[in-house]
């Protein structure tokens, strides 16, 4: 029975490793920072509180300001990595999608006539004539 459990755990570990290997860099960074960022924020708050107990009143505003700035910078870093920004689609992909959408649309046929050195191109109501 214990062998079956060990095999099941090993298979689950292999599957988890496979899923983590497929993760994007953003997902891996978000996961790692999510695990460790709260600890660092907590430590920065402890530094601020500890410094208020030890330092005199003249040095305290500078230290608290630095701790607050570092904490906000860390929070912004975590927010930037964890929240997913929408990527702008490449222009060629947009063009291909538009062309695919136009495949179903019916347009009037185009006609090209060449007579006496003049080329006439007509499509629907539009007509363009060029001459030599």
If you had to describe this structure to a student in words, what would you say it looks like?
The chain has a domain at 2-85. It has four helices and three strands, in the order ααααβββ. The chain has helices at 2-21, 25-54, 60-82, 91-102, and strands at residues 110-115, 118-123, 126-130. Strands 1-2-3 form a three-stranded antiparallel β-sheet, with no helix packed on it. A hairpin with a 2-residue loop joins strand 1 (110-115) and strand 2 (118-123).
Rg over CA atoms, rounded to whole Å, is 33 Å
Could you report the average pLDDT, rounded to the nearest whole number? 79
Distance between termini? Answer: 92 Å
Individual helix count? 4
Describe the SSE topology.
Elements: H1 2-21, H2 25-54, H3 60-82, H4 91-102, E1 110-115, E2 118-123, E3 126-130
Helix pairs in contact: 2-3
Brief description of this entry?
This protein is an alpha+beta fold. The chain has helices at residues 2-21, 25-54, 60-82, 91-102, and strands at 110-115, 118-123, 126-130.
Key descriptive features of the protein:
3-stranded antiparallel sheet; alpha+beta
């Amino acid at each position: 029975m214990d062998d079956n459990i060990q095999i099941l755990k090993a298979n689950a570990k292999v599957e988890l490793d496979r899923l983590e290997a497929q993760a994007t860099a953003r997902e891996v960074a978000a996961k790692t920072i999510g695990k460790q960022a709260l600890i660092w924020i907590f430590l920065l708050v402890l530094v601020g509180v500890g410094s208020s107990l030890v330092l005199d009143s003249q040095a305290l505003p500078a230290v608290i300001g630095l701790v607050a700035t570092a904490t906000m910078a860390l929070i912004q870093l975590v927010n930037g990595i964890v929240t997913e920004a929408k990527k702008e689609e490449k222009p060629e992909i947009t063009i291909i999608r538009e062309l695919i959408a136009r495949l179903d649309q019916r347009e009037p046929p185009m006609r090209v006539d060449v007579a006496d050195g003049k080329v006439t191109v007509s499509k629907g109501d539009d007509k363009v004539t060029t001459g030599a």
